[in-house]
Amino acid sequence: MRFFCYTLGDESVPMPPPDPAMMATMDEFVAQANREGWLVATGGMAPTAMGAKVTLTDGEFTVTDGPFAEAKELIGGWALIDVRSKEEAVGLVKRFASLAGPGEYRIRQVFGPEDTPAG
User: Fold this and answer.
1) 50: number of CA atoms within 13 Å, CB side?
2) Exposed site from 29, 39, 45, 94, fewest CB < 10 Å?
3) Residue 8 sits in a domain of what CATH number?
4) How many angstroms separate the CA atoms of 44 and 77, rounded?
């Protein structure tokens, strides 16, 4: 089972770069996750000012460059993991949160072709 795990960000609060000790801790966590084989991919999200929104209405596309003032919740960092259950995903996110610190962490199952009924 694959899960998309992410933290919430707030563009109105400046985010200083992590200190070297935190980066070393996170690097070791990612290295361990790779050794254990459950981490598929991970990364951080650029500010919405660097993004775009594509809308399709009545057959017409509208492209709007960021920032998106109406955004209430933004994805900060993310990871795609491959584990046996949601409970295992929760345990791994708890491990990560204990290193990363206070915040809100969300988990959503990712469905792929292997998750659809045959036929």
Assistant:
1) 4
2) 94
3) 3.30.70.1060
4) 4
Q: What percent of the chain has pLDDT over 70?
A: 95
Task: Print the domain residue range for 93.
Answer: 2-45+71-112
Q: Around 67, how many Cα atoms within 13 Å sit in the side-chain half-sphere?
A: 11
pTM of the shown model:
0.81
- Residue 93 located in a structural domain: yes
Q: How many residues does the chain have?
A: 119
Cα separation of 92 and 96, whole Å? 6
As for how many domains the chain has, the answer is 1
Cα–Cα–Cα angle for 57, 110, 97, nearest 5°? 115
| Tens-digit pLDDT profile for residues 15-38 | 777 789 988 999 999 999 999 999
Q: Averaged over 91-118, what is the pLDDT?
A: 88
